[in-house]
Recover the amino acids of this structure.
């Protein structure tokens, strides 16, 4: 307990940054992932190809490499400068979006084709058919796997510690500089992650599953 | 085979052909439906009658030929196709009500999102339509809470909400329990009496006798007979139709 209380500043800053990385990346990943999933079911071949190419390249690249690129490679391209936090957010968002896209795409496949036909039959164009009829039902059916992706994102934020972002994954190194027992510090970090996953994400998942239960 | 020359039929199919791979499902289909006419399409399964029905609002594409609705050729994709579809009501075998929306929302969605109607106007119209098809009490429920017959009547109300020029029915009673068939057929007969132009794919010979102006008999992707119901049922011309009728009317 002493390790936690005496170094509360480290834990608070660390988890605050973890929180920012997670929330901002999750929002962007969900938006981008939804768009990419829509591209992959679009009737336009070029859209489908672009979506597939993005998912296959980014999803198959290790997260460490993606973050390394944005933290170390990107600044040399002569583009507008970004700080390490923003670099980590971009990397995490692009990476997680591929998983979100595939999860939502599998949800789209669970919606009976008759739903889209009925929507088209009353004159809804493709975009509205997707956004009003298909996507809401797709989301509902993929709440559990979507939350697995979000939980993975929460834990993946710790990779950013390796690229100069002072989030929860960096707490151990800072503790060691202060001469505090690292093992105890690590256990506290792990415990707080468990609390975040079980207390926040799993609760939200249960709530959404209950609220969105679709009777078919 | 074509009906007598008439200035501009509402639905006009000219030399329509379609293949599913090696299967030639529609062979040189010529069919005209006049305004206010009720055409019943019957035939053995696999004869292409559902495909024909679905082709009329391009849920199925066609390989060759033209389909014209109220003088306008069916566009291949995009906005114009969506516009044209709004004029063609469709009722499916499996109802296809939007599962995540209430009965009322199912009926108001098209008028609000496609025609830009206000929510209040759309709801007023929807409640009137639901009342008319006899499910006014169910407006706030979800589709899964309704019986099949009720769902199908809602589906008819949803199509009517778009004020379509023509209504297509693709085997509307085939997925229903026997005791629910009549409640749906009654609504359809009522519609026919009010002068709605209808193309109905069905196995309900009673409906064909009662409400149809013409019966179109299809087999193997072709229109084999096109006659008044009375003539068709009492005096079929082709061997194929005789055979079909002998099989279904003996029960």
């Amino acid at each position: 307990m002493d390790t936690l209380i005496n170094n509360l500043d480290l834990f608070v800053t660390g988890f605050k940054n973890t929180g920012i990385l997670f929330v901002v990346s999750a929002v962007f990943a969900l938006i981008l992932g939804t768009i990419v999933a829509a591209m992959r079911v679009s009737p336009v071949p070029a859209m489908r190809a672009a979506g597939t190419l993005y998912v296959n390249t980014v999803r198959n690249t290790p997260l460490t490499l993606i973050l390394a690129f944005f933290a170390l490679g990107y600044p040399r391209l002569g583009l507008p400068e970004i700080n390490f936090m923003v670099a980590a957010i971009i990397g995490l968002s692009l990476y997680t979006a591929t998983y979100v896209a595939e999860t939502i795409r599998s949800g789209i496949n669970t919606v009976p084709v008759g739903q889209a036909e009925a929507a088209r039959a009353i004159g809804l164009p493709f975009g509205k058919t997707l956004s009003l009829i298909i996507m809401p039902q797709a989301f509902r059916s993929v709440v559990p796997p979507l939350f697995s992706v979000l939980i993975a994102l929460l834990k993946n934020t710790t990779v950013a510690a390796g690229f100069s972002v002072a989030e929860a994954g960096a707490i151990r190194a800072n503790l060691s500089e202060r001469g505090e027992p690292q093992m105890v510090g690590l256990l506290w970090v792990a415990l707080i992650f468990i609390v975040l996953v079980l207390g926040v994400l799993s609760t939200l998942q249960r709530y959404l599953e209950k609220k969105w239960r679709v009777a078919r | 085979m074509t009906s007598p020359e008439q200035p501009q039929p509402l639905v006009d199919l000219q030399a329509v052909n379609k293949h599913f791979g090696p299967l030639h499902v529609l062979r040189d289909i010529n069919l005209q439906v006049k305004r206010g006419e009720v055409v019943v399409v019957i035939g053995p399964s696999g004869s292409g009658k559902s495909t024909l029905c679905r082709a009329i609002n391009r849920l199925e594409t066609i390989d060759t030929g033209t389909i014209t609705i109220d003088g306008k050729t069916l566009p291949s994709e995009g906005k114009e196709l969506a516009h044209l579809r709004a004029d063609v009501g469709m009722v499916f075998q499996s109802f296809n009500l939007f599962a995540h929306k209430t009965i009322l929302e199912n009926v108001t969605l098209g008028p609000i999102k496609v025609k830009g109607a206000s929510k209040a106007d759309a709801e007023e119209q929807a409640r009137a339509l639901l009342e008319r098809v006899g499910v006014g009490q169910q407006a706030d429920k979800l589709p899964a809470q309704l019986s099949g017959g009720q769902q199908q009547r809602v589906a008819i109300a949803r199509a009517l909400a778009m004020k379509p020029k023509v209504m297509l029915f693709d085997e509307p009673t085939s997925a229903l329990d026997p005791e629910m068939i009549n409640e749906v057929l009654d609504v359809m007969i009522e519609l026919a009496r009010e002068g709605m132009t209808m193309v109905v794919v069905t196995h309900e010979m009673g409906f064909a006798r009662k409400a149809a102006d013409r019966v179109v008999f299809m087999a193997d992707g072709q229109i084999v007979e096109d006659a008044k119901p009375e003539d068709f049922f009492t005096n079929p011309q082709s061997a194929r139709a005789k055979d079909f009728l002998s099989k279904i009317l003996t029960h």
Observations:
- Chain B touches chain A through 32 residues (CB under 8 Å).
